[in-house]
Design brief:
The structure is a homodimer. Chain A is an alpha/beta fold. In chain A, about 45% of the residues lie in helices and about 15% in strands. In chain A, α14 (about 370-380) packs across α20 (about 540-555) and α24 (about 655-665) packs across α25. Chains A and B meet through α26, α28, α29, α31 and α32 of A and α26, α28, α29, α31 and α32 of B.
């Protein structure tokens, strides 16, 4: 075709065509054509039945925004030529009254953004071509139904009208005629509706609905580009770290119709089960329907396969039984797609008059559970290698697997049942709006977001919620897709639930649940339960175990955990922790009635009083350490000396102060005064960390004695060697470290001499203040190891209190100053340079210095990749995040960390 | 002499001799011989009458501490040889019963440490040599008096006994015999006292007082070395930044006696007046006395010159009239000393039987007022050049000149009169101990430290006090010397005051003043006044003006001020400020009843409410700026946009909240709630600086409008150009800066268009967060200037809250972790590297970028020298410190900044 009608604008190729097994582009042009466009081209080249069409490139989007929202010169001509080509390919003509070509116009960014971008179908219809369509399809009802859909969609997406007003007209007409479903309307009804729709548009916009097909098309193209910058698209990009400048492409494609009668259908499918990863076709379809009917959840779709139909208990036939030939073609295509793309595919297809058309293919979103199975299976099937498999898994998604599930022995009260749309169980207070979800979450509440269906406007609320419950929609509805992506448990289509937004309540199983009432959902079974329900820790699949073992083989960095309670330590070990990177001794101070002794120590007026209280605490802490050393059985344990300011241990409320005063036999006033005296303006920058050790060496003397004695006892009882690493917090001056280390060595020496034994131990320091980074070369000369405390390093480098920043960081994200909370993911440009600098300066002074990191960032994939680049020896994170860290470290070692691009 | 008896230890020269116009060393060996030893050698070489002696070097001190407090091998032999030489030079012999050589043993560090190191006189006396001394001096009373002094001093300093117990024996003897003064005791009395002293020593120490002169000497030498590490010496070094490793030398010198009758005397003198700088001999002497009698303040000394006697109203004769020949010798020596040392000298001398002996010379401590006059005079006299003169002045001392003086028109109630020991006036609560002075100072109180006399143990209290008052002692007493050095107003010898430490009160002019009562002292007149008294700003002398004009010619860096009130701005201009480096707009928010509108703005629930309140504030701020621009008349004015967190403006007490609630017509509860909601855990790291501008752009819109409109008005009214520099605080991300700058430029543009005029202005940023330093290369691309906020940069780099650090930084200083509070003097190793890095990175992106500093450190001499090295363009400091900054910047340019070494 290109040869016949070359583009009139040779200077810039804005448009890439695909038709009849031949395309200008291919999968390699994803950045230019967007994911959808590249795949359409690719599928065309492979020889799949793809409706002919063309893609307007992402460069046009950039040009559009670069040129004050005007389409670039030359584009119109190229579109014109291309649409003529489509017409030729399908034997119709754009705007032709008797044989009109209809097209779909869809967005298509580099990365799939489900539900984010607007789509227009049936474009090309007007008051005259609708007659031609009626005649050619021999179905007047279909033609007017299509026209009214087009008007409705176009008016909404391109002309900016509220789509509700069209629904109102339709509802009014149905009420007037006593119709309960769209199916009851005939051609005349739709014709009437079309007239009313056109009238409405003209009244609202003061000009008639555009009748010129070319104008319709240009309007739709601009609308797609415009939708790139709607608030909801911007939010999605922010949440998924997608750069604004990527832009979207526009795909214009000949319409095929799944609603041309009973031998027509439309459906969506995954080449494997996106929920479990099982290698079975998974999907839904609707006879005599258009694609939007499936996705919107208005009608409940049918199963593709007999097997799924049987297990789902559907009464209606599957595609496999209804259209066996088409189903066989589809299966065949699925196999070829996987062989070609080497990944599970998410496809849209339409059957028009018995002929199968492939509308779209893309890597399918999947649960992490499914991702693991698919990756491992594909390695077993010889499709991909292990490193590819490792990089196929979103480390953050492993969170899903670690979610608790409903305890099977629990007595539960099921109040409704829906589709198991995203696995995991969650308990929370019912809320009915995204705003409520977000504000209650900020107030520290766990919430379940309950909606009839969700829309992109709800994404921030879904993010804030523990789980999502909808009364409508299928497994591929917006709620289901987005929740799976987020790793949130989700039940969709729980149709027995009635939601009353105005009253802020829902009824289920005859009972009313108001905003704030607690329910539990199980996204793996679809059960909605009243109240909160006992849960069980998740079991990890064989696929998980296999893939993680591959990851462990690949990664360079060690993974430790931040833990101090025996249960946390065991939990972390189960998840593969290779040591403790941060044991916060102060957490032990809170357990049981120790806090009383701790308070007595803090409130003592002199060293003697403090020592007396510390003597009581010593055997308790010794016992704690002994237990941890025994559990860790030879793995390294880094113990941080007391860090928080002393006032954090003291009571705040008068009644608690009174209790304490009585318990330690001191007057209320005296206790209050001492508490007041200890208060600080900026505790984060106050009397804490090694500063306490400098002022009250007796505290760390007790702690070090407890560590060394505990280690000796543990080594005595177990056969494994015990290797304590004692860590000094908040060092700014090497002199601080040296003074504290002297105390440590002195106490250790004394214990060794008392017990006539010796034990290896090392002493190192946190690097968590900018000054420590700058003086790392000095500190490394006397410290055995460094551990970056990136929480405090972030607070100090950015001058940002983690406890206070929540209030305004949202403004920062909204205004694009930051793309991600620097406490969640390392600020690589700033804090990152400090980590690199500290490591470099430290190792310059002491070759091979062991350097780790034990801030929150130790569990964040992007940060872990950065730490790998810095040459850190290990990361340490919360027990829950150990698997994430193991996988992220492996991906970092592969140098192809998981990104949204990967799928 | 050396030739006759070469040292037996050729391998190490531990001892340097001086005698008869010839010395082993000289002034150039100050580091080895200490200041005193080097000067004794130098004076000997010049030919002054110096009692012969030798110096044990500072290396011996190092060897002593390096060798577990043992004197090095070979030292004893060298001492032995040297003491024989002394004996030969004076015709006596150490330990010889009939003709005993007596020596003094004195410390002498590289830097003068007055009162810090212990001294032993009359060493060599024992039960037998005392007889020889009596015979040779023909004065038995003198001999036993000397012996009892020696026992008392030696027992205190070398044997570690409490000197009070000796005083008790003496007092008991005097009471028993009805004596009121030492003069009444005759030879037999002293003999009896000596016996009792010897008995006491033997009882207390279980062994007799050492009778072997050589053992006495070695003991004294060790005691001098030991005294290098007493707590008070360590404290002094810490306060004066003197390294511990310097060590002290020991000077052993033949005794000469000022107490050998009425043609003997002892005195101290300055070659010029150390208080005014006038080129007149200044000093005191006592007939028939030893040096300690003058310094201790027990007897009130006489004037050296007739002129001083007359002006002081003394009834007793001056040295000039009493011993004209000796006085003429002394005057001649003073002239030669100044010509030799090119500086004013502080000398100690003794007249023994009419013969003058020079015991010591050193650069004399002086008031800053005197230092200025001496430096300027010496330039005029051709002794030194201007740069030397500039570097002779301790910039910190300029504080003294800027101290207020008593308003001469004020009605004052003088309750006592003492010596004008250190200039300046001060008001404060009376305290009677150094500890109280320190703790009340920490509690924010101004205090006057009142003591009978002060001792080195009181130094920390003198530091904490606004002024010092003693009831005893002369102009060269400990209190006077130390107070002058510190720049604290001081009155000494106010003998009419009676101090009762136990009752914590003093009586003066018949009235009792308790701890906490307020008094005022005038260190320039010696007047002690009741209550607080109106004061006047100081007038600066012609010498000051001249020297500062030389400084201004020499310095490279500009000096600006941190000021925002018209009076402060004028004050700073008078002191030579060349611009405003930091105008804190928020200070203006507090004036008058504006704070109400500010609170209304803060408590508004929406932007509209905030804007309404801001509209009221606009004309007020505009007026402020206009006034400042007019006062500054063309000099640059850097205005910082709102910086502190909003809660700092809100009331805290319930009654104030109630008042506010009423005033803005909102319920108490609502106001309380809003105040609570604004509270922060770490305000220093909270919602402040440009973060406010991001959240509430309307606030800075108002501020920028006020600045630009004020500037236009000022430019209109005055002829001078107006050049506002708008400064964005607390930038961490370049994106923050860019957003705020957009708002600034937009408002400016709008004002220009409204008023149809234009005005130049620049926009820059504070660099006060480590991240801003790291990203300086980015920020400099869009910022016209940088200003380092070293207060916040110190807080963040060190993770140290200025408001909370006071509590534990004292521990840090005590333990030697830091030598100086990093908020007073820049932490050059840490924060300093950030300043250098930020400057370098900023200028790499924008050549010639204007960089200043506006933290507290802008007024600290050591920090200013560092900033000069970094290439900063200017420093900005409080108005009071502008002269200090000007002088420091000049010294930095001379590259010979004032240090303790200079004097």
């Amino acid at each position: 075709m290109q040869k016949k009608k070359p583009s009139k604008n040779s200077q810039a190729k804005w448009v890439y065509r695909f038709a009849d097994g031949k395309a200008d582009g291919g999968a390699d042009l994803r950045n230019l054509l967007g994911g959808k466009g590249a795949n359409l081209a690719e599928m065309t080249n492979i020889g799949f039945p793809v409706p002919p069409g063309f893609t307007i490139t992402t460069e046009v989007c950039a040009a559009y925004y670069g040129n004050d929202r005007k389409l670039p010169d030359g584009l119109q001509g190229q579109i014109h030529d291309s649409i003529e080509d489509i017409g030729e390919a399908v034997g119709a003509q754009f705007g032709n009254v008797s044989n009109p070509l209809l097209v779909s116009v869809r967005s298509g960014a580099r990365v799939s953004m489900p539900g984010m971008m607007d789509t227009v179908l049936n474009l090309g219809l007007n008051n005259e071509t609708v007659l031609g369509l009626a005649k050619r399809s021999n179905d007047e009802r279909f033609a007017y139904d299509s026209y009214r859909r087009f008007i409705q969609m176009y008016s909404d997406v391109v002309l900016g009208m509220d789509h509700g007003v069209f629904e109102d007209i339709l509802d009014a007409h149905k009420n007037l005629n006593g119709f309960s479903s769209d199916m009851e309307l005939d051609a005349m009804d739709w014709k009437l509706i079309v007239d009313k729709f056109l009238e409405l548009v003209e009244v609202e916009l003061d000009e008639p609905f555009p009748q010129d097909s070319n104008m319709q098309l240009l309007g739709a193209v601009e609308a797609v580009f415009g939708s790139w910058n709607t608030a909801r698209a911007v939010t999605y990009r922010r949440l998924h770290d997608i750069p604004d400048e990527w832009g979207t492409a526009v795909n214009v494609q000949a319409m095929v119709f799944g609603n041309l009668g009973d031998n027509s259908a439309t459906g969506v499918a995954f080449t494997r089960d996106p929920s479990t990863g099982e290698n079975v076709i998974y999907g839904e379809f609707l006879v005599n329907a258009q694609g939007e009917d499936v996705v919107s959840g208005i009608r409940t779709p049918l199963s593709l396969t007999e097997k799924a139909r049987n297990s789902g208990g559907d009464t209606k036939p599957s595609l496999e039984s209804l259209m066996p030939k088409v189903f066989a073609d589809l299966s065949d295509i699925f196999n070829k797609l996987e062989a070609h793309y080497l990944d599970m595919q998410d496809v849209e297809f339409t059957i028009q008059g018995g002929k199968l058309w492939m509308l779209q293919t893309r890597s399918g979103k999947r649960t992490t559970k499914a991702a693991l199975r698919i990756a491992v299976d594909m390695v077993d099937e010889g499709l991909i290698d292990r490193e590819t498999a490792i990089c196929r898994i979103d480390p953050k998604g492993l969170d899903q697997l670690l979610h608790p599930t409903i305890d099977p022995t629990a007595k539960i009260k099921i109040i409704a049942k829906g589709l198991p749309a995203s696995p995991g169980a969650a308990t929370g207070e019912v809320v009915f709006s995204a705003e409520d979800a977000e504000s209650l979450k900020l107030a520290g509440k766990a919430v379940i977001l309950v909606r009839t269906e969700t829309s992109p406007e709800d994404i921030h609320g879904m993010h804030a919620a523990e789980g999502i419950l909808t009364s409508r929609g299928g497994m591929t509805s917006h709620a289901a897709v987005v929740a799976r992506g987020m790793g949130r448990p989700c039940i969709s289509g729980a149709s027995s639930i009635n939601i009353d937004y105005k009253a802020q309540e829902m009824t289920a199983a005859g009972k009313t649940y108001s905003r704030g009432d607690v329910i539990t959902i199980d996204g793996s079974t679809g059960n909605v339960m009243a109240g909160s329900v006992p849960m069980r820790p998740p079991e990890l699949s064989e696929y998980y175990v296999k893939l993680m073992s591959w990851a462990d083989e690949v990664r360079r960095m060690g993974v430790r955990t931040n833990a101090e309670t025996p249960s946390d330590v065991r939990h972390a070990l189960e998840h593969g922790a290779e040591g403790i990177g941060l044991c916060r001794t102060e957490h032990m101070f809170f357990s049981g009635d120790r806090i009383l002794k701790v308070n007595e120590m803090i409130l003592s007026e002199d060293e003697a009083g403090r020592r007396a209280a510390l003597d009581v605490l010593l055997p308790m802490q010794r016992g704690d350490f002994k237990e941890i050393f025994e559990i860790m059985s030879g793995l390294p344990v880094t113990i941080r000396l007391l860090d928080p300011p002393l006032h954090e241990f003291l009571p705040r409320e008068d009644k608690d102060i009174e209790k304490l005063a009585k318990a330690i036999n001191v007057s209320f006033d005296k206790v209050s005064q001492r508490i007041d005296a200890l208060k600080e303006f900026n505790p984060m920058l106050g009397h804490r960390g090694c500063r306490l050790a400098i002022s009250y060496p007796e505290i760390i003397e007790m702690q070090v004695r407890a560590i060394i004695e505990g280690a000796i006892e543990a080594a005595h009882h177990s056969k494994a060697p015990v290797m304590p690493e004692i860590m000094v917090p908040l060092v700014a001056y090497v002199e601080e470290y040296t003074l504290v280390k002297e105390v440590i060595d002195q106490v250790a020496k004394q214990v060794f001499s008392e017990q006539d034994t010796e034990l290896e131990y090392t002493v190192g320091t946190m690097i968590e203040l900018p000054r420590a980074v700058l003086r790392a070369f000095e500190i490394a000369q006397v410290a055995d190891f460094f551990s970056f405390g990136t929480n405090d390093l972030t607070q100090t480098a950015l001058g940002l209190s983690r406890d206070d920043a929540g209030k305004f960081l949202t403004h920062y994200e909204a205004k694009g100053i930051i793309s991600v909370d620097p406490f969640s993911s390392l600020d690589q440009d700033g804090v990152g340079e400090l980590v690199a600098m500290g490591t470099e300066r430290g190792r310059a002074a002491r070759a091979g210095l062991k350097v780790g990191i034990c801030g929150e960032h130790g569990g964040d994939p992007a940060s872990i990749a950065f730490f790998n680049t810095c040459g850190l020896d290990y990361v340490s994170c919360s027990p829950f995040r150990v698997p994430i860290a193991r996988l992220s470290a492996a991906q970092a070692a592969c140098e192809t960390r998981f990104t949204n691009d990967t799928l």
